[in-house]
């Protein structure tokens, strides 16, 4: 297990067509990500308009089997529902089906999830534990590198489009702390609308890459890394 005291991980939701370009950038800089997918929506027919800026298309599952091979696949709800509005059985079914389909499609063991809309409740936490989900991510930025102590209520350091990210990158890179630090960045690739947006994301990746003191890892690898400091 990697014993570096700094770890960096990315998490992107929904499995949309823009992931193709995003993965290309991550792979170019040797960065690792977890992609949270909705197995009921893995078709180009599932589209929506993002802030009247662009038409967003989900990827067809046949186009993404090999795309994510250097990264982790995790659940995001079969139908991307608000779990707090569903009864116990419907919530259980949605997560269970998503997990089983993704495991079959990608020939892997699913251990993680990102909450649709960042919403969950006690019922959802109980179901995740029953289904063997190790961690699940919300959407509320902590602006911190402290290791999370509630893995099913994990919150990210920040979204990649927040103005604080460059300050956080500098703090992370320049820190000489002997304590373990986790930089957890999340988002959606469809939020990259213009070429300037894409260039800004590439600048973030370049600034964080190729450092001997950082462990570049998927979400589940970050969780396993954290355990070495217990």
Short description:
This protein has 230 residues and is α/β, with parallel strands linked by helices. It is built from 7 helices and 10 strands.
Task: Provide the fold topology.
Elements: E1 6-13, H1 19-28, E2 33-37, E3 47-50, E4 54-57, H2 61-64, E5 72-75, H3 88-106, E6 112-114, H4 122-130, E7 135-137, E8 158-159, H5 165-174, E9 181-187, H6 195-208, E10 214-216, H7 219-227
Parallel strand pairs: 1-2, 1-9, 1-10, 2-5, 6-7, 8-9
Antiparallel strand pairs: 3-4
Helix pairs in contact: 3-4
Q: Number of helix segments?
A: 7
N-to-C SSE string, H for helix and E for strand: EHEEEHEHEHEEHEHEH
What's the mean pLDDT score? 96
Show unreliable segments: none
Rg, rounded, reads: 17 Å
Number of strands: 10
| CATH class group | Alpha Beta
Strand content: 15-25%
Q: Going by CATH, what is the homologous superfamily?
A: Glycoside hydrolase/deacetylase
Principal-axis shape: globular
Major beta sheet, specifics? 6 strands, parallel
Q: Helix- and strand-based class?
A: alpha/beta
Q: Helix content range of the residues, please?
A: 25-40%
Instruction: Tell me the number of structural domains.
Output: 1
Instruction: Tell me which CATH architecture applies here.
Output: Alpha-Beta Barrel
The N- and C-terminal alpha carbons lie at a distance of 13 Å
CATH topology, by name, is TIM Barrel
């Amino acid at each position: 297990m990697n014993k570096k005291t700094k770890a960096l991980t990315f998490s992107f939701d929904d499995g949309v067509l823009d992931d193709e370009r995003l993965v290309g950038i991550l792979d170019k800089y040797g960065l690792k990500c977890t992609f949270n997918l909705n197995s009921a929506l893995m078709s180009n027919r599932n589209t929506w308009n993002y802030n009247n800026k662009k038409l967003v298309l989900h990827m067809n599952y046949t186009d993404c089997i090999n795309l994510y091979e250097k990264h982790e696949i995790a659940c995001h709800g079969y139908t991307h529902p608000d779990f707090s509005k569903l009864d116990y059985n419907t919530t259980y079914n949605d997560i269970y089906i998503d997990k089983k389909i993704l495991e079959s499609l990608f020939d892997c063991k699913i251990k993680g999830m990102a909450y649709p809309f960042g919403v969950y409740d006690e019922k959802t936490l109980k179901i995740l534990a029953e289904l063997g989900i190790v961690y699940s991510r919300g959407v509320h930025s902590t602006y911190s590198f402290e290791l999370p102590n509630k893995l099913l209520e994990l919150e990210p350091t920040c979204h990649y489009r927040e103005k604080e990210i460059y300050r956080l990158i500098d703090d992370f890179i320049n820190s000489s702390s002997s304590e373990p630090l986790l930089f957890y960045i999340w988002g959606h690739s469809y939020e990259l609308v213009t070429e300037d947006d894409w260039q800004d994301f590439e600048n973030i990746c370049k600034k964080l890459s190729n450092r001997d003191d950082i462990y570049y890892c998927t979400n589940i690898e970050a969780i396993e890394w954290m355990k070495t400091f217990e």
